[in-house]
Design brief:
Blueprint: H1 4-12, H2 15-19, H3 38-44
C-alpha cells in the first residue's frame, strides 16, 4: 500500500545502489582502482602531461 511506495522510491533513487551498476548517465562503469598507480597520480599532477 502507501507504506511501500516511499520505501521503493528511496531505494531506486539511492546513489550508492545506482552507481554500483551504472553511472547517472546510464553508461556502464568500470572499476579502475587497479589501474590507479602512484605513477599515474604523479602524471596527473604534471602540467605537461597530456
Amino acid at each position: 500500500g502507501a507504506a511501500a511506495a516511499p520505501k521503493k522510491t528511496v531505494k531506486s533513487s539511492d546513489p550508492s545502489s545506482a552507481t554500483s551498476t551504472s553511472g547517472f548517465d546510464g553508461l556502464p562503469r568500470e572499476d579502475i582502482s587497479s589501474k590507479i598507480t602512484p605513477n599515474l597520480l604523479k602524471n596527473l599532477g604534471s602540467p605537461d602531461w597530456k
